[in-house]
Amino acid sequence: xxxxxxxxxxxxxxxxxxxxxxxxxxxxxxxxxxxxxxxxxxxxxxxxxxxxxxxxxxxxxxxxxxxxxxxxxxxxxxxxxxxxxxxxxxxxxxxxxxxxxxxxxxxxxxxxxxxxxxxxxxxxxxxxxxxxxxxxxxxxxxxxxxxxxxxxxxxxxxxxxxxxxxxxxxxxxxxxxxxxxxxxxxxxxxxxxxxxxxxxxxxxxxxxxxxxxxxxxxxxxxxxxxxxxxxxxxxxxxxxxxxxxxxxxxxxxxxxxxxxxxxxxxxxxxxxxxxxxxxxxxxxxxxxxxxxxxxxxxxxx
Length: 301
Known about the structure:
alpha/beta; seven-stranded mixed beta sheet; 45% helix; elongated
């Protein structure tokens, strides 16, 4: 999977796709830019674009198994600071730092696919050093776990200890949750099934009688269709841009070849038109240059 952050602006809705690992500095990544991953530095450049267009709605599609906690917290704060209605949607294996970003939504707008799996766990790191430096890092990890448990509690209505215990399962590796278990734990608000109908499945079973179910289905399905059409338009735009670049490259190559050909044709013509001096030796007694006879005649003696 190509790992990246992309932002697409459609009418009053801005779609943000967060894919792959989160937070490895780009200088430590592969040389190919297409394989680089989602960092806050790259995301921060795009946040300004959202503010400029004043989007009224932001949809964050998350397809990530996690990464760096610091970058995830920075992205979370950036999303929470936007003056827009934010919806987060989790797909596939959503885990670790990606679950932090998934919490940056308005009330009731943390969505998860019916096929997704969800994991929160204790923080981990790799470090070498002496006992003092290792103790300092262990203290940082404990404080990070406390901070994350409090963040989950803030958006779920549960207490932080509940999430601390959930993160501590399996020796701190956590436990994978189904979409239903994720909603029951308070880590998501509703389940989506876009592959079938695009209908939002509410957390509670009791549905108000005044809700028009077909209208909700049509609205959700329409949004899915608009999303897919937007993705298609985005890909077509990229393809047209690459096609235009190739056309311009060929045009420049033809023009350079034409100029080179004209320059080669001009050189012989210039050489032919330039005046040259020829030196013709004059020989006495030649047919072209007859010598003048003397008017005097020799008298024989």
